Amino acid sequence: xxxxxxxxGVSLLLVARPCFAGYKDDIRYTELSNExxxxxxxxxxxxxxxxxxxxxxxxTNAYMPNIADTQFNGKIITDASAGGxxxxxxxTVAKNLYGNTTSITPGIxxxxxxxxxDWINSGWYSGTPPTENNPLQNHSWVNWFQNSNAPIRMxxxxxxxxxxxxxxxxxxxxxxxxxxxxxxxxxGSMYNGITVGVSDGTHRYGTTAYDGTGRVKPEIVAPxxxxxxxTPYVTAAAAMLIESxxxxxxxxxxxxxxxxxxxxxxxxxxxNWDQTTARPIDEVYGAGELDIYESYxxxxxxxxxxxxxxxxxGWNLSSVSNSSSEVYTINVPAGFELRNLSTLITWNxxxxxxxxxxxxxxxxxxxxxxxxxxxxxxxxxxxxxDNIEHIWRDSSSALTTGSYTLTVASTSSTATExxxxxxxxxxxxxxxxxxxxxxASTPVDQQDASDDPDDDGIKNLLEQAFGGDPETxxxxxxxxxxxxxxxxxxxxxxxxxxxxxxNGLTYIVETVTNLNDTWSSQASVVxxxxxxxxxxxxxxxxxxxxxxxxxxxxxxxxxxxxx
Length: 563
Ligand SMILES: [Ca+2]
Ligand SMILES: [Ca+2]
Ligand SMILES: [Ca+2]
Prior knowledge:
This protein is α/β, with parallel strands linked by helices. The protein has helices at 12-15, 23-26, 29-38, 88-98, 116-124, 149-161, 227-245, 254-264, 292-301, 430-437, 460-466; strands at 6-7, 51-55, 62-64, 76-79, 85-86, 110-115, 136-139, 141-142, 164-168, 194-198, 206-207, 216-217, 220-222, 314-320, 325-332, 337-346, 350-356, 359-365, 369-374, 378-381, 388-393, 402-410, 416-427, 480-486, 489-499, 506-512, 526-534, 538-545, 556-562.
């Protein structure tokens, strides 16, 4: 049986179009890369992660990336459908997924390519899907088969093999528009994967019409003009997380990966991003725009079990018993508020396969879970149809000091495995700090930012900035100036410690060689060379003058703090 499949996001113009270098900034890959470098932590590259890339034919039998392209030097690209010709579409998807400089995961070297008709007819549309050995599938193509055969087999295979499928939705401006739903049956309607739109919202979005109606799609967006080429950014981000999970099977479980990617997603992509109690994610942008920085640090926050008090970032893979619940406690300490709490749960639908002779039948069931936050606030996410729930609170709805409970509840008659991921930011501005930093021994008129009640020469604002006690003389909190040797030269450098949470302050290191000149923070004269964790919840930032001390008679460095 040959089913026609459609390309998404391809045109003659587009094939020759260069990749958008800016996307690495937009998904905060550049920021993550810089920070891990400063912290001397290896940046994951997708090393050791194999992927499946399914491609609709651009022309007859043309579905392979151009393996002669230098972006693919060192790759083992297997033509799993055999005999494929080169496709510009496949080449661009491949560059975005594992290109040596064009992707965020040049470490992916083992790729299986399938032609979509061959793929779908090999058991993914009728019969039984073959075993998927790769942890990730990228589907930058769509179709409306107008029945549930393909998505239910996909969800069955996900449960059986444990991979994460990632599929693009339809573009707004391409091909037939007279479909019964904006959401493609194949694979836009799947439950157990992630569907992808574009960051400017020009993909076709909406709710599913097949195989469980009314579910919001897509789950995430990424910055490209076409869904085909945005989708591999998400697949690549998942590959980074698989590598950084190391040997921790729970950290790279497909449910966990999905929850980390969605909980990390950036809402600021649109001022119109919203959710309701019954609609967990935005109807255009899903959970938001891919943000690999947040998703990476959610994973690094570590697995934290139900029943515990949780940190600012983390995740868990757990199981909620029938008609029961699991709880997680959030404590916001005195003198702080908790901003930008994003927490998301996801679970799979179950699929049962029954075979009688040549007939194979699939039936499915979906548990109904909910996620709620209680304490000084009350917020619930409880869709009756989706298999994700999500709570988001922006900085204007921060959690104030107190204890809160996150509850994952199930009305299902059986136990349900779920993944939860969360991120949030402790925040303390001068006003919050000063409310807890002073005792009655300090008069109120000595509590302003420019006062120095303990007379140690460190004004209150600097006590806050460097983690000091405004009532105890402690000059050892001040920045450290020193001369260091590197590459056979001596350099002037300065380091300061900063609380490892946001405190509303801006730190700028400036230098000058003559005190009559204007202080400069230009990277050409002074650069950040490392960030190191210190005990007590501090980071130490070290800056160094670019010129060695032999280049000038004298030089000065200072840290400038502003509110
Ligand atoms: Ca629900
Ligand atoms: Ca002081
Ligand atoms: Ca002090």
